[in-house]
Specification:
Elements (H helix, E strand, L loop, with lengths): L3 E5 L3 H13 L3 E5 L2 H10 L4 E5 L7 H10 L7 E7 L3 H9 L4 E4 L4 H30 L15 E4 L7 H10 L5 E3 L1 H5 L10 E5 L8 H12 L7 E6 L4 H10 L3 E4 L4 H33 L9 H18 L3 E8 L2 H8 L1 H17 L6 E4 L4 E7 L3 H16 L16 E7 L10 H17 L5 E3 L5
Parallel strand pairs: 1-2, 1-3, 3-4, 4-5, 6-7, 6-8, 8-9, 9-10, 14-15
Antiparallel strand pairs: 11-13, 11-14, 12-13
Helix pairs in contact: 4-10, 5-9, 5-10, 6-10, 12-13
């Protein structure tokens, strides 16, 4: 995984050693000794990740780290604190200052590279979601509401919860809601009522040879539909950097050492939960934005934007299947009179009710859309002329035979529709021109209107 890395270290030997390691791993690297130089390099060419020596006493590196995380322009840059003493308090102080991770001196090369890969994966996923969210907002599809401060759902996967009593107490004390306890079988069999939480915590306080099932568990959780988006935090023995590196490369979002302070565990848990909830919100905005882009807000039917693309696909499939494609244009008769007499609210009720009747009385494969004020389009794949005409007359009767409720202020009224139908004709090697079919259906609709309304007219080329 390529990435741009900035090394900030006041000791020349440290800079050289780290630079060689990063270049050997095919990263693009810049180095500097001071915070001022780092700020200039960041402004000129923003890195993906910073290796920051927090033990340099010539400058307040903890404040520098915090400032980077507080600045909206730089808070997305991953920061790994290096050069610290290997103590629980030093790790917590670095994380509390805003570092994404901490590697004490001497640095374990495999763990360093695994940490970098993990952070770059997380950053790439979040950046892509932010980019898509920004596009949705520019198109007016996102509402900009992000629920912050919602308690996260955390599940501890433990075969024997009694042996993890202290960890469970710390989690329940430090989190906004109690941690859930589950076992491997319940999670993997899908029988766990808390499957797919914001975060799974996996204690792997075992030797490397005993951790095999947990390596498989991480891979399984990352590949399953209901858990693949959950964050994964693995607790590893203090003297097992190779195990920690392997868990990260298998898909864990973070690892924490067994001797970590309770405050560090809680901090890592909250960071992972917040990241997961942010990504969920961005995905939801994208999904809702795309839905809004192709859906008529009043009736819930697809809109013209969706129709243009979907008809093209239906046309291609009609050629592949060797079957005809039918298109209906439907218009509500005298709809302006309904609005003028009863008001636009009553007219909206009619539109919603007609949309429901159309949608509920067609096949799942058929396309139903609202393409204008009182105009609807239906596309029916694999329909002969007889079948299309029969469906059109059935829909016409469904509308005309049952009065429409306008609310308490008005009595129910009768409404009718006119329908124009066009077909693609005998299947051939050329894809049907759906734009031309719509024009032909429109022309047939006009004939139905001029012939007295409340009727179906077929395109004249249909025999």
């Amino acid at each position: 995984m390529s990435g741009r890395i900035l090394i900030v270290d006041g000791v020349a030997t440290n800079r050289i050693v780290l630079r060689v390691k990063m270049l050997a791993a095919q990263f693009m690297v810049e180095v500097c000794a001071t915070q001022a130089e780092a700020q200039a390099l960041i402004a000129r060419n923003r890195p993906d990740l910073i290796l920051l020596n927090l033990s340099d006493l010539s400058e307040d590196r903890h404040s520098f780290c915090a400032a980077l995380k507080d600045d909206p322009d730089t808070q997305g840059i991953g920061i790994i604190a290096v050069g610290l003493a290997d103590t629980a308090r030093a790790r917590f102080a670095a994380l509390d200052a805003g570092a994404d991770d901490v590697l004490a001196h001497p640095i374990h090369d495999a763990l360093l590279l695994a940490r970098i890969r993990s952070l770059l994966r997380a950053r790439s996923a979040t950046d892509e979601l932010f980019l898509r969210d920004g596009t949705s907002r520019a198109l007016g599809f996102a509402d900009g509401q992000t629920p912050f401060g919602v308690p996260g759902q955390v599940t501890l996967i433990a075969q024997h919860a009694g042996s993890l009593h202290d960890l469970i107490v710390h989690l329940n004390t430090g989190l906004d809601q109690p941690v859930q306890i589950s076992d491997i079988a319940a999670v993997l069999c899908g029988n766990d009522p808390v499957s797919g939480p914001d975060l799974f915590i996996i204690p792997a306080i075992l030797s490397m040879t005993d951790a095999g099932p947990l390596f498989g568990l991480v891979s399984d959780l990352r590949s399953r539909v209901d858990t693949r988006l959950s964050s994964l935090l693995v607790v590893v023995p203090d003297d097992a950097p190779d195990m920690a590196a392997l868990f990260l490369d298998l898909g864990a979002d973070d690892v924490v050492m067994q001797n970590a302070l309770p405050q560090e565990v809680i901090l890592r848990v909250n960071t992972l939960v917040q990241r997961k909830q942010l990504q969920d919100t961005l995905r939801r905005n994208l999904r809702d934005g795309l839905q809004a882009a192709v859906t008529d807000p009043l009736t819930g039917l697809f809109n013209r934007r969706y129709v243009d693309h979907h008809l093209a696909r239906m046309s291609e499939q009609s050629v592949t299947a060797g079957r005809e494609l039918a298109i209906m244009m439907i218009d509500i008769d005298h709809f302006k009179a309904i609005n003028d007499r009863f008001g636009h609210a009553a007219g909206d009720r009619v539109l919603v009710a007609i949309a429901a009747r159309l949608r509920e009385n067609l096949r799942a494969v058929d396309l139903v859309a609202r393409i204008g004020g009182e105009e609807f389009l239906i596309a029916m794949p694999r329909a002969t002329a007889r079948q299309a005409q029969g469906a059109a007359n059935r829909l016409r009767r469904l509308i005309s035979q049952t009065p429409f409720d306008l609310g308490e202020a008005h009595p129910p009224i009768n409404v009718t529709i006119s329908v124009g139908v066009a077909l693609s004709g005998e299947a051939g090697p050329d894809r049907p021109d759906t734009h031309q079919m719509c024009d032909l259906a429109d022309a047939a609709l006009y004939r139905a209107k001029t012939a007295g309304r409340d009727r179906v007219a077929m395109d004249l080329s249909v025999t």
